[in-house]
Design goal:
458 residues; alpha/beta; Rossmann fold; 2 domains; 7-stranded parallel sheet; 15% strand; globular; disordered N terminus; disordered C terminus
């Protein structure tokens, strides 16, 4: 069976064994991201999706075009994990210690999956194994070791995480947790080194991860995280009043690292002078402090705190906005930025992490993380420029929507992942998927690749 690739050249469907234990079409964040990626791959290839029993009903109900769904059942371990999530972490998914807690369960899942599927792997039922979850680079994969001598290659990613905590910003330090100081310990855990040594390709979702695994430059690729639905990139934008106020918007949880206070301080002069309005979508522990800040800055009449709203309402608000202000000082992904670009809200972001990787000069603006005072001053200048130059704002908006349609959809992501998999299988040349930033001492795209997978460890 044939499927057209992005350049119009027919390509055969691959038989992919895809590991995604907790992908979930009904959730948010990583579970939804992973499910959406898997479903997009299933439109191009014959995907056998391997999941945990906890998400089975929801995945089957979503009706994506998977060739088959394999369910790994670990009832006792699942009960232990659920107990820890409920009683120890109290469903705090932002806890960095939760990643460490997941480690033995992630290993167990892959061990059970291997026992369940190894005969079919050796019987030649699959071309390649792709692990989508866990995304964290500190959670290794036994599958890489199991397949170190073949018969098929193992690929993992997109990987994301491991951003350092920037200095000179209280927002980053207030978000830091004690377990962050122990992240380096993962290098000495079982399978940590063999995972990356034996992987035929490593897909990274950020420049930071590319820098962390620069020693594997010959098999390292950049595919941004996450993606957007193609349908989001189209739609009518409300008519704007020629001399109306500029609509600024912030979309995120109200936690210290998201930096909403920085956005409010930068926008304050424009808000006080009646040139703009500011909408805050999201909620969290910082809300009371942020509301007090608006009163202190005398901008409370121009700022609307809307709390949590539905996804559809987020998209509606983004289509009505002019500028998405997102000065997060520690954000591995960039989901809100993808959505803003697709909906036509021009992003103004901190030049760091996921947002710094995604935003380009022709679609938005990036502000370097120097120190709080300088950062706020630079962001104020950027916002003032956009408010005073409607033609520039409109040009960035149109270019951003085009950029999202061409590069940031789930289909585009599946196409890029396909190019990596086909290179691994020696069916295409090595794709040009380099990170947008070259970190000090990190990824060097000038080095040439070694040969792709040929049935032996890479």
């Amino acid at each position: 069976m044939e499927q057209n690739s992005s350049n119009g050249v027919p390509m055969s469907r691959l038989r992919i064994l895809l590991l995604a234990p907790n992908c979930d079409p009904t959730e948010v964040s990583i579970p939804l991201v992973t499910y959406s990626h898997a479903a997009a791959l299933a439109e191009l290839h014959d995907v056998t999706l391997v999941i945990g029993s906890a998400v089975e009903d929801r995945v089957r109900s979503a009706g994506a075009n998977f060739r088959s769904i394999e369910v790994v059942r670990m009832p006792i371990l699942q009960r232990i994990f659920d107990w820890g999530l409920r009683r120890v972490f109290r469903y705090n998914y932002a806890s960095q210690a939760l990643t460490a807690f997941r480690y033995p369960f992630a290993l167990a899942f892959e061990w059970y999956a291997w026992r369940q599927l190894r005969r079919r792997i050796f019987a030649g039922n699959f071309d390649v194994v792709l692990r989508l979850i866990p995304m964290s680079p500190v959670l290794p994969s036994p599958f890489a070791f199991f397949l170190r001598k073949g018969p098929i290659p193992f690929v993992l990613g997109p990987l994301n995480g491991g951003l350092p905590f920037v200095q000179n910003f209280s927002q980053a330090q207030n978000h830091k947790q004690w377990v962050s100081n122990l992240r380096w310990v993962y290098r000495f855990l079982p399978f940590a080194r063999s995972t990356y040594r034996h992987a035929a390709a490593i897909i990274a979702a950020s420049s930071q991860v590319c820098g962390e695994f620069a020693k594997y430059h010959d098999k390292l690729f950049f595919v941004p995280e996450p993606g957007v639905s193609a349908s989001l990139c189209y739609g009518d934008r409300p008519n704007r009043e020629p001399n109306g106020k500029t609509e600024l918007i912030f979309v995120a949880g109200l936690t210290p690292n998201k930096g909403c206070d920085l956005a409010l301080r930068a926008a304050a002069p424009l808000l006080r002078n009646g040139l703009a309005r500011f909408t805050v979508l999201g909620d969290g522990p910082e809300r009371n402090r942020l509301e007090q800040l608006t009163r202190f800055l005398e901008i409370d009449k121009a700022v609307c705190f809307c709390g949590w709203v539905s996804h559809d309402e987020v998209f509606r608000r983004l289509r009505s906005a002019d500028v998405m202000v997102f000065p997060s000082v520690r954000d591995n992904g960039a989901g809100a930025i993808f959505e803003a670009l697709a909906c036509g809200a021009v992003p103004v972001v901190a030049d760091f992490g996921g947002p710094g990787d995604i935003v380009r000069a022709d679609v938005g603006r990036k502000v370097p993380l120097t120190n709080e005072r300088d950062f706020v001053a630079q962001m104020e200048r950027v916002l003032t420029e956009l408010v005073n130059d409607r033609s520039l704002l409109e040009r960035l908006r149109k270019q951003g929507m085009s950029y999202a349609r061409e590069h940031l959809t789930w289909d585009a992501k599946a196409q890029d992942t396909t190019r990596v998999l086909r290179w691994v299988l020696r069916r295409e040349p090595k794709p040009d998927l380099l990170p947008p930033k070259i970190l000090a001492g990190g990824f060097d795209p000038s080095r040439e690749s070694t040969a792709p997978y040929a049935g032996s460890p890479v």
